[in-house]
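Example 3.2
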Amino acid sequence: MRPRDTRSVLLSNVVEMGGATVAALSGVVGISDATVRRHLDRLEAEGLLEIEALRHGPGRPAYLYRATDDGVRAVRDRTPQLAERLLAEMVRLRIPPQALSDALATQVADSHRAEVHEGGIEERVDDVVEALKPEGILDTWERRDDGIHLVNNACPYLGAATASDCVCESDRLTIEKLLGVEVEQTGRLAEGDPGCEYIVPLYPVIPESNMPEQQAV
């Protein structure tokens, strides 16, 4: 078994048992205490485990390894599956997808708005790409003859995007809200394209929702 696979097995056992000692894990996995301890130290360094000293009288304490919140998520996080089910149910109930897309986009855009500074369109595009990389929405951009192309190479919620168009529309609206100009999506990973791709025209149009309100005379 590869070291990474061994660590995955150990972490899964720690989560399932609610905490475990080196001796207990050694007996379950069938490897030496020293090897188990080495893998657990690596998992602790990665922030997936924490150690608790157990004292039962005099002498050296035993140590109990427990999974951190990140450790539990690494083993049992089923958020993508839940999102797919929720979106499928929304489609079945005929809940308007545009309202959800706009609400999600507003939430994400508002959380990153301070990272996008004033300037020309290319400077703002660069800020938006950097801001949305951690969200998994964008990776790169480049200027071409027909406009500025923004690309995402790996969708972080492909199953959900396949279940409902509102996921892709939410990402497009997020980019549009942060840039303040119209954005067109021309490629979708959920439809088998090489990547999710968006185009900002070289002479962009400001959407009505992003235009400043006219002051009464």
